[in-house]
């Protein structure tokens, strides 16, 4: 799975946002604001990966237990799915 192409993540005035670019702007009208962990998840999902790989990366990066990390990742992925932003 990975985030669909056509989205750019930028830091603007201390806020991390994702906006559609090119053809993606026709399908997604808006922007997404990410917190630090959301930004990390986004980066992990910007290339082909699995939930297990993302989970391992999160556990290595943050002081979080596996169950909490998995719940947060799945919630983030569900947000991506509901907005049609992920390829599986």
How would you sum up this structure in a few lines?
With 88 residues, the chain is α+β, with helices and mostly antiparallel strands.
Question: Which features does this protein show?
Answer:
single chain; alpha+beta; 5 strands; 48% helix; 88 residues; two-stranded antiparallel sheet; 4 helices; three-stranded antiparallel sheet
Overall description:
This protein is of the alpha+beta class. 48% of the residues lie in helices and 22% in strands. The protein has helices at residues 24-27, 36-45, 51-61, 66-82; strands spanning 2-3, 7-12, 15-20, 32-34, 86-87. The strands form 2 sheets. A 3-stranded antiparallel β-sheet has the order 2-3-4. The chain has a two-stranded antiparallel ribbon with strand order 1-5. Strand 2 (7-12) and strand 3 (15-20) form a beta hairpin. It is globular. The model has no long low-confidence stretch (mean pLDDT 93).
List the helices and strands and how they pair.
Layout: E1 2-3, E2 7-12, E3 15-20, H1 24-27, E4 32-34, H2 36-45, H3 51-61, H4 66-82, E5 86-87
Antiparallel strand pairs: 1-5, 2-3, 3-4
Helix pairs in contact: 2-3, 3-4
- Uncertain stretches: none
| Strand residues, percent | 15-25%
Distance between the termini: 4 Å
Give me the oligomer status.
single chain
Shape: globular
């Amino acid at each position: 799975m990975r985030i669909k192409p056509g989205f750019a993540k930028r830091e603007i005035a201390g806020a991390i946002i994702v906006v559609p670019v090119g053809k993606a702007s026709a399908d997604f009208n808006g922007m997404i604001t990410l917190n630090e962990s959301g930004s990390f998840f986004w980066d992990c999902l910007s290339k082909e990966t699995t939930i297990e790989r993302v989970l391992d990366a999160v556990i290595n990066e943050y002081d979080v237990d596996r169950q909490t990390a998995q719940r947060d990742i799945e919630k983030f992925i569900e947000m991506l799915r509901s907005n049609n932003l992920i390829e599986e």
